[in-house]
Design brief:
Number of helices: 2
Strand content: 35-45%
CATH topology: SH3 type barrels
Distance between the termini: 27 Å
Largest sheet: 7 strands, antiparallel
Shape: globular
CATH superfamily: Ferrous iron transport protein A (FeoA)
Number of domains: 1
CATH class: Mainly Beta
Order of helices and strands: EEHEEEHEE
Structural class: mainly beta
CATH architecture: Roll
Number of strands: 7
Radius of gyration: 12 Å
Length: 84
């Protein structure tokens, strides 16, 4: 069974590509409008001191997401942001 990766798995400085959005999520449509679409590269920029929210760079914009919302964005495995 393949391991599931989501945005919350990324550490600052890591990047990944979006593979899917959880269709049951409350913000699925809004996340898609913000650019979290399959194939899009996302970079984890920073995490708040207490761990939530986390800032992500997506399509040239920095967007902060709560952990429960970011968990609905499935990704490929993380990689260092400088690659790809």
């Amino acid at each position: 069974m393949e391991e599931r990766h989501v945005l919350t798995d990324l550490r600052p400085g890591q990047a990944a590509r979006v593979t899917a959005l959880d269709p049951r999520g409350e913000l699925t449509a809004r996340l898609a409008e913000l650019g979290f679409l399959p194939g899009t590269r996302v970079v984890c920029v920073a995490r708040a001191p207490l761990g939530d929210p986390t800032a992500y760079l997506v399509r040239g914009a920095v967007i902060a997401l709560r952990g429960r919302d970011a968990a609905g964005v499935e990704t490929g495995p993380g990689e260092e942001a400088g690659r790809g």
